[in-house]
From TrEMBL:
This is Fructose-bisphosphate aldolase class II. It comes from the Bacteria. SUPFAM superfamilies: Aldolase. Pfam families: F_bP_aldolase (PF01116). InterPro entries: Aldolase_TIM (IPR013785), Class_II_FBP_aldolase (IPR050246), FBA_II (IPR000771), Fruc_bis_ald_class-2 (IPR011289). Zn(2+) 1 binds at residues 96, 191, 235. Its cofactor is Zn(2+). It comes from Alloprevotella rava. Keywords: Lyase, Metal-binding, Zinc. Binds 2 Zn(2+) ions per subunit. One is catalytic and the other provides a structural contribution.
């Protein structure tokens, strides 16, 4: 039987995006696959009174079970209230939906927002598929994110060798004909912890750390000129903090030359019409770094709470930092009491 997200206490993304664009900040979209990640996201966003988007990929849905995920999202709303956030704004969003059937199933299962990613299809097919999802989702007041342009990198089942920047001349036609509520664009962000090849980067002469090429803000500007005030989404926006990479590498891990998007550039993007910034890899890195540290220091530890707990603490720290210092979404709930 179908369930509405409204009955679960969730919200769609329409109002939070409108306020984010007008206020010059961005809403965090954090992926989750397990309880500790969800606890960390809700703890950080509730404490800082930030609206938040819980993202579930097709892979996460297969990993954790869709029914369980839905109840976890419902539980997240109640947990936020318990943490003193009386009017939380939490969206449950499908990340990279790849078919009408998957999007429909999420809408029917209580998701408040879905992405249909037809970006790898020919333009007209992307439009047809996206429009079909929008027509279904809007009957239930579920918001829809579309995508134009291709990001490089690997994210669950989404793999692309090369990126193709979004063509600003297509965005009006695409958004008008599909009716999407927001648009993911490609301006140089990338999925995964290896966003750029070393040959695309320069090396900091002092630290030896890779410095990635800058995002294409000129394309973002052109898109904003074509679509004034329209909600824009950035995928693949982890920064791959060097401290986590070092923690992992110094405890037996192997992540050579992992590189992300500098936070400075995301701060700049958050002030524009970019109103949703997707962060997944950073949380995976924090989780792995903390677990590795426990194993390295206490090889006899075998209680999962003793290593998942520290992982959760490090993720809380990460999410708070993103909300406050990068996206600027703290104290932005419509009702702060
Ligand atoms: Zn993505």
């Amino acid at each position: 039987m179908a369930v509405s997200y409204k009955d679960l206490g969730l919200v769609n993304t329409r109002e939070m995006f409108k306020r984010a664009i007008n206020g010059g900040y961005a809403i965090p979209a954090f992926n989750f696959n397990n309880m500790e990640q969800l606890q960390a996201i809700i703890t950080a966003s509730s404490k800082l009174k930030s609206p938040v988007i819980l993202q579930v990929s097709k892979g996460a849905r297969n990993y954790a079970n869709q029914t369980l995920l839905r109840y976890m999202a419902q539980g997240a709303v109640e947990y936020a209230k318990e943490l003193g956030c009386n009017h939380p704004e939490i969206a449950l969003h499908l990340d990279h939906g790849d078919s009408f059937e998957l999007c429909k199933s999420c809408v029917d299962m209580g998701f408040s927002s879905v992405m249909i990613d037809g970006s790898s299809l020919p333009y007209e097919e992307n439009i047809a598929l996206t429009k079909k999802v929008v027509e279904y989702a809007h009957q239930f007041d579920v918001t829809v994110e579309g995508e134009l342009g291709v990001l490089a990198g690997v994210e669950d089942e989404v793999v692309a060798e090369e990126s193709h920047y979004t063509r600003p001349e297509e965005v009006i036609d695409f958004t008008k004909r599909t009716g999407v509520d927001s648009l993911a664009i490609s301006i140089g962000t990338s999925h995964g912890a290896y966003k750029f090849k070393p040959e695309q980067c320069t090396r900091d002469p002092k630290t030896g750390v890779l410095v990635p090429p800058p995002l294409a803000f000129d394309i973002l500007d052109d898109i904003m000129k074509e679509l004034p005030g329209f909600p824009i989404v950035l995928h693949g926006s982890s920064s791959v903090p060097q401290e986590y990479v070092d923690m992992i590498n110094s405890t037996g891990g192997k992540l050579p030359d992992a590189v992300g998007i500098p936070e400075e550039q995301l701060r700049k993007a958050a002030k524009s019409a970019v109103c949703k910034i997707n962060i997944d890899s950073d949380s995976r890195l924090a989780f792995t770094a903390a677990v590795r540290k426990v194993f390295a220091e206490k090889p006899g530890e075998f209680d999962p709470r003793k290593y998942c707990g520290p992982a959760r603490d490090l993720m809380i720290e990460l999410y708070e930092h993103k909300i406050k210092e990068v996206l600027g979404s703290d104290n932005k709930l419509a009702q702060l009491d």
